[in-house]
Structures are given as structure tokens and as C-alpha cells.
Amino acid sequence: MEAFINYILQFGNLNRQQIDLILNKATTLEFHKEDYFSEAGKVPRYVGFLLEGVVRFCYYNNKGEEITHSFVEENNFVSDQQRFEAQIISSEYIQAETVCKFLVFSKKDWDEIGNTIVGWKDIENLILKNCLLKAIERRSPLVSEDATNRYLLFNQHFPGLVNRVPLSHVASYLGITQQSLSRIRRNVR
């Protein structure tokens, strides 16, 4: 809980009463490895703060191939925010890569926080902007790099993550085959 409070306080000031309100709206949920936090074809149910574990965002392309487009580690928000806010069907999956523990907020509770705490929407917008900038910062360099440098950048942005998630998902994120990833990992050591 402390990590969550410290995280949100980076984006604005909240008093003890406001923090208590937010925490009272939160529910702790655990997901097993490979469980879905959110699924394509369904309306996202939660905004979550990942207390423990790793999730990945993925989708299926027009060839039916599974594409991993991002990872999120503990102490970060996890949501399909646009579709959660609009309460429309998602086109991607958010899947637990490890056992995960979340603080989650239903749409009703999330809206109540926004309607009760003056300035919450500003905090929420800053959190969203921060999440987006992190994602862009991690993805953008991958576009122009060769496979080896993409792998090295991945390890720089996500230290130790390669040992926590399936290599097939890392390869998908990097846009290479698993065989190429194995070859690169052998050569980099």
C-alpha cells in the first residue's frame, strides 16, 4: 500500500482523508500466471496498481500471431484506460506473466474517487501521461535498432525481466524469432 501511496503522491498533493478514501475504494486481487487482467472482446473491469509481479499487453495480428507490445512491472498502474473509461470492448489482452498482486478499482469506485476528490482528474491525467511517456521511451529506440541492440536496450529498460517472463514473449516484444533471441543471448554473454 505504501508503494501505491508514494506513487500517486508524485503527481499531486492529497491529505490523509483523501488517501483513506482512495484506499477504501481499492480491493486487493491476486492473479495466477497466465490469468487475464483484461481480455480482448470484453469490457475492462478494473484499473489496477501492480503491487507484485509482471504483466504484458498483447494482441493478435491479422495473421493470428500473438504480439506482445509492452510489459509492466510492479509499482505501476495497469489498465486499458481508454476502453475502461468509455466502458467499451477491448481489442487487447493484459495477461499476468507471473503471480501478480493488484490494488484494483472498479469503474464505479474510480468514478467516485474522481467525483469526490478535487484535483483527482489532474492527478489521473499526470499518471496517464507518465505511463504513456514511459511506454514511448521504451519502444521508440527499438524501431531503429538491430536485433542485438534491441535486446540490450530491453535489458537496460527492464533489468532482470528476461528471467521472469517467457522468452517467446520477449522475442515477440523485440520483433524477432525465439531462435534469434537465443542466438543473441548466447553471443552477448
Automatic annotation (TrEMBL):
Gene3D superfamilies: Jelly Rolls (2.60.120.10). InterPro entries: cNMP-bd_dom (IPR000595), cNMP-bd_dom_sf (IPR018490), RmlC-like_jellyroll (IPR014710). Residues 30-113 form the Cyclic nucleotide-binding domain. This is Cyclic nucleotide-binding domain-containing protein. It comes from Mucilaginibacter polytrichastri.
